[in-house]
Amino acid sequence: MFSSLNIRIGFFLARRQVRRSSPWTTVLIIFVMFFTFLNLVVVSGILVGLIQGAIVAVRSHYTSDVIVSSLNNKTYIENSPEILNIIKSLPEVEAVSARYLEGGTLEANYKTRTSYKEKPNIAAASVTGIDPIAEDKVTNLSKFIVEGEYLTPLDYDQVLIGSYLTAKYLPIDSPGFTTLRDVAPGTKIRVKVHGVEREVTIKGIIKAKVDEVSMRVFMIDSELRSLIGRNDYNVDEISIKLKPGTDPATVRDILKRNGVDRVAKVQTYVDAQPKFIKDMVDTFALLGNMLSSIGLVVASITIFIVIFINAITRRKFIGILKGIGINERAIEISYILQSFFYAFCGSVIGVLVLYVFLQPAIAAHPIDFPFSDGILVAPVSGTVLRIALLMATTIIAGFIPARLIVRKNTLDSILGRN
Amino acid sequence: MIEVRNLKKSFKDGENITEVLKGIDFIAKSGEFIAIMGRSGAGKSTFLYQMSLLDEPTSGEIFIDQKDTHTMTVNEKTYFRLSRLGYVFQDYALLPEMSALENVVLPLLMQDLKEKEAYQKAENALIKVGLGHRLHNLPAQLSGGEQQRVSIARAIAHEPQILFADEPTANLDNESSRMVMNIFKELHRAGQTIVMVTHEEEYSKFADRIIHLDDGRIVL
């Protein structure tokens, strides 16, 4: 059937047909295949990238590579100073940020309220004590200042507040959830933690697409320590940034072997991802595949129509080929090869555009989705699989119409009889 | 040698059945040049298509070199046409996207000849019909007479046992027609068996034998 002779003759026929066909038609078909390829790869890539962008953001702006946090039944990490010493002694570690966390409230309008009947403008927040320099080395927190300035280690009674705590950046009015109105750098607010109240000045507003950053209030660690009376230096969270190329699991395992997991949760950024994030990745991948499948069907129909019209208009010549003794299979192979050529050219152009232009461009300028900076996820293995799928579908779509025409009576084809 | 026994061919069009060939018995000896003549609708071309295995007769038998063609599969018939028969069509039937040389070389390549040998044979065939200078021209760049000569070159390049021609001069001017018939004459002189359908008395005279068809039967 698919003997080398038939393939050789099929190639001979296909080459001449493509070479002598209208260049515009060829370009148009390749264009369709190119967009089909992009549809296959980019749609699912963007959908997965939307979540992947969020995962990357959480890693780089909150958890970093490894995060050590308090056990579920503990309010802080016991023996934090010793644990910090162990972490800092590891050669794989590039930077460490230890954080104190306490639930608290912020009040904004206490100075302008004129009547006790007027509702206080209070927002609940997670108050976070940090070493500003260490934190910036781990999470680049200073990059997310949208108003005002970043903290220095001497900025007592000054805070950075997350944008989701301000009505300006999160203008929603939901029962049980309030934000601070009319606040800006320089505004004084009250922070209340463990019943202790302190008046602080907003030094800056932080806006990041990571809730753990945008829903927090940051102050100098020593100030929060004094507010909550934590004199043992036990912290609540330690984010560890590793040197490039280090596998986070390696450091996690080292810490576990050192007994850190007896007093704290030790997780890589992957371990720390909530299950719903993983489910969302799978869901979006499935959604992308569904949309891509529609694109694949459209491409198949396009190729089917193109080859069918081509074969119908060339029916007489197909008859002549059969008449002079060319094997039917060789003629079918010529159409399969033409379909393959169109799909191959479309895919090659698609791969070039994808990896040379699109992916680097989107990586450099992520798509500004409301909850993440979307990137384009297109692993080579997935792309190869999709190319194979496109090729297979296209070849089938090219073969069927060719078979329909080739199997018609030879003389009827030559004479144009139905 | 071709032997045709009680060959019938009818066409069905809805409820109507038209009998075009009504029981033909015929023998063509090896090396003969036979002209089939008859008025329009007499069944000349239909007879040629059955003998040349391009169509399936309704009934009857066709033997080519004692081989019963009735028992052949579609693929066997295709291969038989490729290796033993040659065709010259009225409208040349060249493939428009291929040059003269490519049109001629294609059946040779299908016979699994080495590329160099196939191209050499194709070139020789084109030289034989006087088109050595038009090897790389597309059919659209050739005159009607030249296209028919390419068609003849394609039909004879693989040295077929029988050459079938269906009104090969019908679309040509007098000069081209004479040129084509002279090629046939030369081929016949070299021993080629030729079966040609024509309605032109002048060219039927080139044949050894003329058979006349009328209303689906041989009348002379």
Name the helicity range of chain B. Answer: 25-40%
Question: Going across the major beta sheet of chain B, what is the strand order?
Answer: 6-7-8-3-9-10
Roughly what is the average pLDDT of chain B, rounded to an integer? Answer: 92
The coarse overall form of chain B would be globular
The largest β sheet of chain A comes out as: 6 strands, mixed, barrel
Main sheet of chain A: which strands, in order across?
A: 2-3-8-5-7-6
End-to-end Cα distance of chain A: 27 Å
Q: In which range does the helix fraction of chain A lie?
A: 40-55%
Which structural class is indicated by helix and strand composition of chain A? alpha+beta
Question: Which pair of chains has the greatest number of interface residues, and how are they split between the two chains?
Answer: A-B, 26 and 26 residues
Question: Could you characterize what this model shows?
Answer:
Chain B: This is ABC transporter. Chain B: Pfam families: ABC_tran. The complex is a heterodimer of chains A (418) and B (220). Chain A is 52% helix and 18% strand. Chain A has 12 helices and 12 strands. In chain A, the strands form 2 sheets. In chain A, strands 2-3-8-5-7-6 form a 6-stranded mixed beta barrel. Chain B is α/β, with parallel strands linked by helices and 220 residues long. Chain B has one domain: P-loop containing nucleotide triphosphate hydrolases (Rossmann fold), CATH 3.40.50.300. In chain B, the strands form 2 sheets. In chain B, strands 6-7-8-3-9-10 form a 6-stranded mixed beta sheet, with helices on both faces. Chain B has a 4-stranded antiparallel beta sheet with strand order 2-1-4-5, covered by helices on one side. In chain B, helix 3 packs parallel to helix 5. The longest helix of chain B is centred in the C-terminal third of the chain and has 16 residues, at 174-189. Chain B is globular and about 50 Å long. The chains are: A alpha+beta (418), B alpha/beta (220).
In short:
The complex is a heterodimer of chains A (418) and B (220). Chain A has 418 residues and is α+β, with helices and mostly antiparallel strands. Chain A has helices at residues 4-20, 23-63, 80-89, 132-139, 211-214, 221-228, 248-257, 275-313, 315-323, 328-364, 380-406, 410-415; strands spanning 66-70, 93-107, 122-130, 145-148, 158-162, 188-193, 196-206, 216-220, 237-242, 264-268, 367-368, 373-374.
